[in-house]
Each structure stands twice: as structure tokens, then as C-alpha cells.
Amino acid sequence: MTVKFRSQIQALTPYKPGKPIEDVKKEYGISKVFKMASNENPLGCSPLVKEAINKSLDYLNLYPDGNATKLKYAIATKLGIKPSQVQPSSGSDEMVDQIAKTFINEGDEVILADVTFPRYITTTTMMGGIPVVVPLKNFTYDLDAMKRSITDKTRLIWLCNPNNPTGTMFSEKALLDFLDSVPSHVIIVYDEAYNEYVTSPEYPHNSVSLLEKYPNIIILRTFSKIYGLAALRIGYTLASEHILSNIDKIRSPFNVNSLAQTAAVAALNDDEFLKDSYACNKEGKAYLCDSFDSMGITYAPSEANHIFFDSGKECTEVFTELQKRGVIVRPMYNTYIRVSIGTMEENKFFISQLKEVLELNVATA
Asked: Are 66 and 254 in contact, with CB atoms under 8 Å apart?
């Protein structure tokens, strides 16, 4: 008898991560490679994190605190909320899956953007939900079109602000107008993985205040970006006690490992590292945007730690040629590429190599 799989997963494809630095070095016989593909912090992580992890290595034989008690308390104290309104997870990816498993029934409509974090549509489809895909407008979420897409079947809405991969944002006023228009029984997942990088005063910097007025909102944050803990897979969710207590029913035991919990608590205590990371990103973004302007390259206005740009040529060809020269970026679709903002050395090397590649006879889309 032939093995059968759930019908909902038939159209899904496995996630394909970019090549590791060592693989690129070996394949092309080069000694220097800069990875500018995954929106990682080029400054690494806080030295306080490394100290804390070293002190924890003697306890690897013990299971983690399944409640992540210290981390919940540290986050809640920093944000001025209750620990019961905080739920750590193994990266935001795990929480996206947990939210889908908690709320989406087969046949439910789920609203999301056409160019955004791909896990939203994967988990929606996985649960038998019906994706209602709304195109971006000028590389930015079209909240008005999303409002018009709400029906009696709408169960959940995914929002990413700033958006991945475009880096664009919508304002606090736009968000509040949108939240006021959404029926209270519809879950709104507000993913702000890149919020610490935003420079615009119009951004909803104090999103935590939304929890009191909008009991249907779920806020996602991560330690993978500005905190530099991507390898440890640690994120956290803010929501009402009622929502989190139900999500907790399907959470895997010990889902956040001890080193990740320890590292996250230490990272929260180093404001100077965050300031340095913010400054590095701001300077690098200005340099890359100025370089793109001088090269006549169109790009989306980014408030994140990456820039979405139009290379003018087939993105996979440009991606391959850059890899040969020691730069790993993320090809998106058609002629569009996403590049992470690095150190100034990395940024300058990327621009120099991009200029070389774009002068080649690379196939156009």
C-alpha cells in the first residue's frame, strides 16, 4: 500500500537555506566570503552573552526550565507588563507554527501580503486555511486593501512591520486605523522582528501599549536580529494571558533550550551593544542607499537591517556571480535581491563586486 500524506502539505516545498560560508569558499576556491543574506547582526552578540553562556556550560545535563521563568520575568520587567503576557519560543518560526495550530481551522480565511515572511503562508496552508493574498503597494503593506479583504470567514491576519523582505514600514496611525477596523474575533499577528532598527518617528515604537486596547493582537519579537542570537533560536511573543494560555496547550515541552534562555536574559542587559548595532546599521544603510542612487539602482525604502533592490538583471544569475566573488546575498524573484546591511568593510566590498557583476552580460529577466 502506498504511503499517504496529508493533502494540505502536497503543494508545499521545503525551506532552502543559503549556502554556508565554508561551502562557498570550497566551491569557488576563495578565502574570503561575506554572508549578507540572512539579516544577521554583523557585530555578533553582546560580550555579556558569551560570559553568561560560559557559566552555564556545567549544566548541559539538565533539562531547561520549561516555563522560561527568568526570561519571562526579564522581558516583562523591561516592557512593564506581566510575565504571564510573555511566551518565549524557539525563534519566531516556532511561534508562527504554534499560532497557526491554535487558531486556524480548515476552510478559515487568512489574510497576508504577497511578498512577506514566507512562513505565514506555509503554516496557513499546512492547517488547511485559505490564504487571501493581498499585493504590496509600492513595496509596502496595503492595509486598506487588507481591510477590504476581511469577510465573515476571516480568522487571522499576518502583519510584518518592518516587512521582510522589503524592509518597508507602515506608520503608527495606519496601524491604529487598521486595528480599529478589524472585528474583535479576528486574530492579528503583528510581527516586528526588526523594530529595534527603525529610525522613523512615525513607526509604532510603543507597540506594547496595544495589548491593553486590542485583546486580539499577538506581537512577535526576536533575539535573532539586533541581539545577534540567531544561532540559538530564541524569540518571544506578547499577548493576553487568555491567548497565551491556550497557545501553551500545544507548545512542546522544553521548547527553548537553557543556553538560549541564559543568552537572552544577558542580552537584555546590554543597552550599549544595541546602540552600537543600531548605529552600525544606520551608517551602513545610508552608504548602501547612496551607492544604489549613484548606480541608478531602484530600491525599497528600508527601516530594517536589509535592503530590497532591483538589480535590473535575473536575480539568480546576479546571486551566483556575487557568490563567485565572495558575497552571499538572497535572490528573491525576477530581478529583485535582498542584501543584509553589514559592517562598512562588508558593505563596500559588496558594492564593488556588484558593480563588476552588473557590467557583465548577465541575462535579463
From this structure: yes
3-state secondary structure of 330: strand
pLDDT digits (tens, 9 = 90+) for 190-234: 999 999 999 999 999 999 999 999 999 999 999 999 999 999 999
Residue 364 has pLDDT above 70, yes or no: no
Separation between Cα atoms, residue 325 and residue 347, nearest integer Å: 14
DSSP state of 105: P
CA atoms within 13 A on the CB side of 119: 15
* CB 280, CB 40: distance < 8 Å: no
**What is the Cα–Cα distance from 96 to 126, expressed in whole angstroms?**
12
Domains of the chain (ranges, CATH numbers): 7-44+272-358 (3.90.1150.10), 47-268 (3.40.640.10)
Residues 6+ apart with CB under 8 A from 116: 136, 141, 158, 160, 163, 164, 165
Kindly report the number of other CB atoms within 10 A of residue 310's CB atom.
17
Q: Kindly state the cell numbers that stand for 126.
A: 499546512
What is the residue whose three cell numbers read 487588507? 146
Instruction: Report how far residue 184's alpha carbon sits from residue 187's, in angstroms, rounded to the nearest whole number.
Output: 8
Residues 6+ positions from 326 with CB-CB distance below 8 Å: 24, 28, 30, 32, 33, 34, 349, 353
Residues 97, 158: Cα–Cα separation, whole Å: 12
Structure confidence by residue, pLDDT tens digits, 78-111:
999 999 999 999 999 999 999 999 999 999 999 9
pTM over 0.90: yes
